[in-house]
Amino acid sequence: MSTTDNALEIKHHNGEFQLSGHIDRFPLVGVIQFINIAEKTGELRITHTRSDNRCSLFFLEGRLVHAQVNEMDGANAFEVILDWGEGEFRFISAVEAPRHSIDKPLPMLLESHKRLRKLRRESTHLPEDNTNLFIVSVVENVPPISSPEWQILSLVNGRRTIGQICQKTGDEDQTKTLLRSLFSKGLISTTATVLKWQTLIPVRQSDREAGSERPYPPLLRTNLVLNAIDGLMNLEQLNRKLNIPENDLLEDIRLLVETKWIRFSSQDTKVFEDLRKDL
User: Fold this and answer.
1) What is the number of structural domains in the chain?
2) Alpha-carbon dihedral of residues 200, 201, 207, 209, nearest 10 degrees?
3) pTM of this prediction?
4) Is-contact 32 20, C-beta < 8 A?
5) CATH number of the domain bearing residue 221
6) 233-258: pLDDT as tens digits
7) Which of the two ends of the chain, N or C, has the fewest CB atoms closer than 10 A to its terminal CB?
């Protein structure tokens, strides 16, 4: 027997129960409740579409007994999984849980998740519409991001305000809901993230300091960077003045250091040397 509705596929083959589909068309809560009501034993494997993150939910006669996301397990892992808005799932019958990390009934877990989501929505207040938004550059344990959230995130560039982003989408209520979600996940901020390399201040070296004949910078762009260095601007200010991609600027700075056209203070030199390993 096989049942499909373009979102969910249910099969019974040789007495084995099979279930698969896509989260964006059949939410996980419904899938979990279906397995619970059907009193199935096995593993629900879920793969996030964009990040390729994987997680598992284990059931014993319909009871959720274990949840696993990377190194996280138990009720906390279950909360993370329920927030996934896109991905694929597949239920594998008769798979035993490696351990039992959940002892609360499913209705209690779902009600707790519902209250937590409501609390997050109510506690995440957006700033004024004329506030500029920035993408947080460094995020540990990046949470799953839905397609609508990605679309909004692509509009955040440090120059657009909340109001301008809403104008771009044409749907203020939905856009602000998604912005609240991105704030709660720690992916956007009202302040720009300052990275270590941005604070470094390059200084031009004289011929005497260089100690030997040095080659001219090989690229026209590198010469432009050299001419803009005044010993006062840090790399972030230099980047804004020249308006060139960050990676290109850092590559030019690396070339200018190696050819002895510029240098850093002793403290900045150590930071730059650590940075240069990744260039």
Assistant:
1) 3
2) -70
3) 0.46
4) no
5) 1.10.10
6) 888 888 888 888 878 888 888 889 88
7) N
